[in-house]
Amino acid sequence: MKAFIIQKYDKKGALKLTDLPVPIIKEDEVLVEIHAGGLNLLDAKIKSGEFKLILPYKLPLILGHDVAGIITQVGTKVIQFKVGDEIYARVADFNIGTFAEYIAIKEDDVALKPSNITMEEAASVPLVALTAWQSLVEKANLKKGQKVFIQAGSGGVGTIAIQLAKHLGATVATTASEKSFAMLKELGADVLIDYKKEDFEVILKDYDVVLNSQDTKTLEKSLRILKPGGKAISISGPPTPDFAKAIGARRFVKIALSLLSYGIRKRAKKIEVDYSFLFMRADGKQLQEISKLIKQNVIRPVVDKVFPFDRINEALGYVETGRAKGKVVVKIK
């Protein structure tokens, strides 16, 4: 099979096209012929070596976390899926590799693809939708009538999180450039803040939840718009000791992450708000819940561009610019 790999950590280096054997599945896995793969900033960060302490991968490595395709083989213990099923998934850490023609995926990480969206749209969904779900449903327990601030509303996570938050009955504020306002209003955003001209800290107050995806300075400002008992959930760091414990990190990594997040945790405690870091995980059951919302047209995928497979380096470069409105996808079949 054709696959794009990295041979060493390198921010500026290109993914290299190579021939590799088709994966051999384990008893609890399915083999998927990949039709489309979603690209995420996480792929670029892994390529550059930014996450090598948290995710110590062996090189060479096929990147790619999001997939949509058709099952061509099932393991002997697989009961939920059969050959021919159209599926999508965010594959688990240490099992990534969707920038290829085939991948073996654990049954527990897979969900049936909603029939009302294309393969390309399906490939855009899993990582960002699971991030939104685990932030707003699992961690924040967002309720009807609450107020949530979702940063960078026009990004991959933002476009899905806004729709999910509205479905849950929350008032949604977001930041974006003015040219994205019409799209974000259509997705359900109530309060639109032009980050180039306006300061969200001046406009927002007494919020219940913040979904932070920006730098530490923005996170510090975000804490101050929360009401006492409010929750700041960050997907861009800094990671916390709780996160280090959850991933079973080595002792020196735990110490390093504790020091990294000490300042923000201290500030949060002082003003009686809760700070947590989310590094989303693969979860087929949660993805099935998201599928129901897609089928009901409660959530719709937002795809900015679809690139052919042979232009994957160009696609990843576009993701790194941060200018994409929604998601970037490669069409493989």
From TrEMBL:
Q: Which SUPFAM superfamilies match?
A: GroES-like, NAD(P)-binding Rossmann-fold domains
The molecular function terms of the Gene Ontology recorded here are: oxidoreductase activity
Q: Where is the Enoyl reductase (ER) domain?
A: 13-330
Q: Which Gene3D superfamilies match?
A: Medium-chain alcohol dehydrogenases, catalytic domain (3.90.180.10), NAD(P)-binding Rossmann-like Domain (3.40.50.720)
CDD domains of this UniProt entry? MDR_like_2
Classify the source by domain of life: Bacteria
InterPro entries in the cross-refs:
ADH-like_N (IPR013154), ER (IPR020843), GroES-like_sf (IPR011032), NAD(P)-bd_dom_sf (IPR036291), YIM1/Zinc_Alcohol_DH_Fams (IPR050700)
Protein name (record): NADP-dependent oxidoreductase
Species for this entry:
Pedobacter hiemivivus
